[in-house]
Amino acid sequence: MSSITHPPEVGEPIGPLPKEFAALMRPELPGLLKEIRAEVTRAYPVYGRLLNGPNAGAIRQGVEQALSAFVDRVAEPGKSSALRDQLLRKFGRVEAYEGRELDTLQGAFRLGARIALRRAKAVGQQYQLSPSLILAFADALFAYVEELEAVSREGYAEVLSRASSEVSAQRRRLLHLVLAAPPLPQELPRLCESAAWQLPAEVTMVALRAPVPDHLEAGLAGDVLADLDIPHPHLLIPGPMTPERTAMLGAALSGAHAAVGLTVPLTQAADSIRWARRVLQLVDEGAVADAPVVRCEDHLVTVWLLSDAPLVSHIAARELAPLDDLPASRRDRLVETLRVHVSTRAPAEQVGEVLGVHAQTVRYRLRNLDARLGDRLTDPDRRFALEAALRALHLQGRVRTGPERP
């Protein structure tokens, strides 16, 4: 092929490939296409599956277009590559839908380029082309691969940007449906599929104290559902709070505060978040000690006893009514002595140590209480109501704690 104009020798600036080179490469395309398919699917088995799937036609056409468009560009430098770009963007979209990083597709592109370069070297030997022409071909080929990667990246980014907003909205709706009153809606499995979320048997709800830091969502695992832009933000963690989940939550919070609800069946998720929010309220009220992460399971009795504060006050007023005629200071001392006595079942000596008074004082007070309260201390139901009321008052801070002052 003496008509081919050879570019300058190595070491000199390399110009564009001669148009005649396209005529040598075009007959090689069918064999090159088969070779690239075979080697790419061997190196990346996932593409073997895709070539037998619903996108097989588009993938084959895209590979053919990527090869022929390169040769066309050599023959006609100004020729449009719109069809190639359309198919390559679909390549990128398929990678995003399949959940792969673009490294796999880029690796396949580069492997295809090496195979094409190997074929070009064979053609060069056949037609005795100069080494500088093959070098020019290699430079043009790998620059072309970078172009293919850039176009496919556009399709990949398109899916990610759309999916980010769409999936986020779908997952918020999913979270709302899970927290709705049972039974779970029939559309839930379909929504789970479109939101790429596997429906768990158990969940752990987490109540967050607003405002939530901007960085929090980025630190959560991919299967955690979140609704953060509401007055009472919350999370849904599939399954129990394993050590790994606990570490993930602690790292994501980074200064924010949360209450972890109980791990419950999916149908009871609303109960879990209700308890978690109640614990946050009790922290604010001082009934539960504050911490970055408070666990409901450590405060179940407190949540139960203070679940209805007005009712607790009514029960306490009813059960302690026989002490109402006493001076306030004396009444308080008797109530605190009674609380320690019924909650510990300890002898007078130990109750006295807790209160900081002599055992004989405790015995005197208990005789007074027995005289005034009567069957409230002997009847099992009345005694239980009295003990529950005293514990609740203590948690609310309405019963003095610690040793008595002289």
Can you walk through the features of this model?
This protein has 406 residues and is α+β, with helices and mostly antiparallel strands. It has three domains: 20-160, Globin-like (Orthogonal Bundle); 200-304, 2-Layer Sandwich (Alpha-Beta Plaits), CATH 3.30.70; 309-395. Helix content is 61%, strand content 6%. The chain is built from 16 helices and five strands. It has a five-stranded mixed beta sheet with strand order 2-3-1-4-5. Strand 2 (225-227) and strand 3 (234-238) form a beta hairpin. The termini are far apart. Residues 1-15 have low confidence and may be disordered. This is Helix-turn-helix domain-containing protein. Residues 334-392 form the PucR C-terminal helix-turn-helix domain. Residues 17-179 form the PucR-like N-terminal domain. Pfam families: HTH_30, PucR-like_N.
The tally of helices reads 16
Q: List the domain count as a whole number.
A: 3
Radius of gyration: 38 Å
Roughly how much helix do the residues carry, as a percent range? 55-70%
**Shape from CA axes?**
rod-shaped
Order of helices and strands: HHHHHHHHEEEHEHEHHHHHH
Strand order of the largest sheet: 2-3-1-4-5
- Structure class: alpha+beta
Annotation, overall tally of beta strands: 5
Measured between the Cα atoms of the first and last residue, the distance is 115 Å
Q: Biggest β-sheet, characterized?
A: 5 strands, mixed
Strand content: 5-15%
Mean pLDDT: 84
